[in-house]
Amino acid sequence: MDEVVVERVLRAVEQVPPGRVVSYGDVAELVGIGPRQVGSIMRHWGENVPWWRVVSHAGDLGGDLLSRARPHWDEEGIPVKPNGLGCRIADHRADLERLAGDYARAAADLPGRAG
What we know:
With about 120 residues, this protein is mostly helical. The chain has 6 helices and 2 strands, in the order H-E-H-H-E-H-H-H.
């Protein structure tokens, strides 16, 4: 995996404010890669960024991620939706325009696409 692409994804995730989430697709669009690549990067290198703020397009977290995310979500005020699979992304999605600006500034020193 290209180290610059990994760094771009991690910096994008770092810009998501507490109490807000984005989808893998939202991050992918900012960085210029596919959502599955974002998922792979998060799986391998995302432990030191607020990974619990990146969810599926439906607001869900698979596997054991939701149980691991719950303490963070509780602290940040993100409730789990009634089906127990994740959050209501429509209620908690970050402002994508603001996120794009924050990401562009955070990634300005990296070569290649800045969003």
